[in-house]
Amino acid sequence: MSWGAKRWLLLAVACAIGVSLLSHHFNRYYLGIAIDVGINIILAVSLNLINGHTGQFSLGHAGFMAVGGYTSAKLTLELSRLLPEAAWPALFLAALLVGGALAALAGLMVGVPSLRLRGDYLAIVTLGFGEIIRVLLQNLEAVGAASGLKGIPNWTNFGWTWALAALTVFAITCMVHSTYGRGFIAVHDDEVAASAMGINPVKYKVTAFVVGAFFAGIAGGLYAHHKQFLSPTGFDFMKSIDIVVMVILGGMGRTVGVILAAALLTVLPEALRGFSDYRMILYSLLIILLMLLRPQGLFSVGRRARLGSATN
Amino acid sequence: MSAAPATASTGLLRMEQCTIRFGGLTAVSELDLHIGEDQLVGLIGPNGAGKTTAFNLITGVYRPTAGRIHFRNEPLSGLTPQEIAARGVARTFQNIRLFSSLTVFDNVRVAVQLRQTGGLLRALWRGRAFERQERAIETEVMEILDIFRLSRFRHTLARNLPYGDQRRLEIVRALATRPRLLLLDEPAAGMNPTEKVELMKLIEFVKEKYRISVLLVEHDMQVVMGICSRITVLDHGVKIAEGAPEEVRAHPKVIEAYLGDNKGGRK
Q: Which backbone phi and psi does B89 adopt, to 5 degrees?
């Protein structure tokens, strides 16, 4: 089991790097979309830990992503001039990790007030947090303020993105499936019962926020070095909603479904480009239809899928 | 803690003069409750008498406005519910509170976790020690599910279990924390007479097998009178009687609380 899980991770990382080495053979447009898919998988899977598994409705994921993105972009912008080219991959990795760590710190700051709130109230607090981050960035001259941060090196490639996506999926899946991690779902299902069984709901909720924010920060770093340009408006409330939609569409708490939904919702707007003006209408209609027909999540199969037959 | 060794007289749980008020309402007033080792104590009373509130005081869901609670000679005041659970108090709930989207197996597994060392990082690294521990936990969960004949449901979601089995699973989950004191909140609620008889057997079995004390809140007289060695009766938050089942049954205040004040007859 342990080797099984780790082997899958190594295999996935190897595949990602392998494909990346061949990437100059591929169409740059498609490669770009593939990187977008990988980044969105990291975002959706990490949000799924908070929203799906632990049941803490967060609308602040774009905020965490922004913290990670801006941090790592600023770091590479400042330090890449000082360091030789050979050290750039190490710098990139370090910048991603620092971005993730700062985002995790932000997660801690949001996680702590969340202990007193639940449901809609928590959603509003996290929404407010995301907006605060955005407004701060909009006014911070050091990161380009409203005109954005330009000239970020183009270091994100297929290999980095998908290796980190694999690592995210591995880490979160391993966590949730361990005995320790079942506590996240226990807290989701019934906090009072969980604490009566010796589980500390506070610790679990904060852990979910910190871990989820960490990976969102990494995704932000990848995004920054993929688009090479960051603007505060890219991290507004709609971005958070996009990620939430991926989680809901994939089925709350179902990793495979969430991965597929992230891929679908990244590719779909691109595929609908042919309809230009009507693109967003079609996209919205599809989401409405999917929610009407598959409220339990598009790709949810298996035992946890059967809602409805609840005996609450 | 260097507390004095527990003697028979100090007992397992000692509630002294516990009072809790919610605004103007005194839900439990100056309650004294003592439970010794290996005892099966009943707590009864009409609706709204404060039985569940007493449970919530013991398990730390509420803090008493006044009074002290000691468990194995250690004060419980100021501890969170999870800390009290770690000290050996487990409970079930009046309205079943299982982890409904987890399987039967995982419901018990979560409770076993209380005694697990290591957490997040160990689960991420998945080393040898982690695997060994996960297997030990699995074995333990399967054992306890076997004992209570729930192992055939191990892959079933808790919410899809039949009602009686849900009640049973809740008791099993509480037992998986290896408590010294088990609090059962109306376990017979909604059960038919056959199920009630089975439940009585189950409670006695649990008490004998795990050598623990049980505090039972119950509406159903048949169940309480049948298995409890001592019964405490609450009415409007006040203890009105205490003693062996026969004494309590004949106690005029108890009759009055349950059947109403008989103006014309005896008082």
A: -115, 120
Nearest CA distance, B121 vs chain A (angstrom):
9
Angle at B46 between CA B42 and CA B49, to 5 degrees: 85
Do the chains contact at A2 and B128, CB–CB below 8 Å?
A: yes
Whether A247 and A44 have beta carbons less than 8 Å apart is answered as: yes
CB contact (8 A) between residue B106 and residue A183? no
Q: Across the interface, which of A1, A179, A253 has its CB nearest the CB of B116? A: A179
Single pTM value for the model: 0.86
From chain B, pick out residues whose CB is under 8 angstroms from the CB of A5: 126
Distance (Å, rounded) from C-alpha B263 to C-alpha B210? Answer: 47
Question: Rounded to an integer, what is the distance from CA A216 to the centroid of its chain?
Answer: 4
**Distances in Å between the alpha carbon of A67 and those of A157, A169, A194?**
21, 21, 32
Residue B80: its chain A contacts at CB < 8 A?
195, 200
Locate A160 and state its tokens.
């980095």
* Binary contact (B173, A197; C-beta < 8 A): yes
Which residues of chain B from 113 to 142 reach within 8 Å of chain A, CB to CB?
Answer: 113-114, 116, 118-120, 122-124, 126-128, 130-131, 133-134, 137
Q: Which residues of A touch B59 (CB under 8 A)?
A: 196
C-alpha to C-alpha distance for B79 and B180, rounded to whole angstroms: 17
User: Strands B181-185 and B213-217: what pairing?
Assistant: parallel
Judge whether A240 and A128 are in contact, CB under 8 Å: no
A311/B174 touch (CB, cutoff 8 Å), yes or no: no
Positive/negative CA dihedral, A128, A129, A132, A134 = negative
Contacts of residue A277, defined as CB under 8 A and 6 or more positions apart, other chains included, come to none
- What count of CB pairs under 8 Å joins A to B? 128
The two structure tokens encoding residue B30: 């100056």
**How many degrees, rounded to 5, is the angle at CA A206 between CA A200 and CA A211?**
125
Q: What is the predicted ipTM?
A: 0.85
Cβ pair B170, A190 in contact under 8 A: no
Per-residue pLDDT of chain A (312 residues; tens, 9 = 90+): 445 677 888 888 888 888 888 877 788 888 889 999 999 999 999 999 999 899 888 898 999 999 999 999 999 988 888 888 888 888 899 999 999 999 999 999 888 877 777 778 888 889 999 999 999 998 888 877 788 888 888 888 888 899 999 999 989 988 888 888 889 999 999 989 999 998 888 889 999 999 999 999 999 999 999 998 989 988 988 889 889 988 988 888 888 889 998 998 888 888 887 776 777 787 788 778 877 887 777 665 544 433 333 333
Among A180, A188, A192, A211, the strongest candidate for a mutation testing the B interface, having the largest count of B CBs within 10 A, is A180
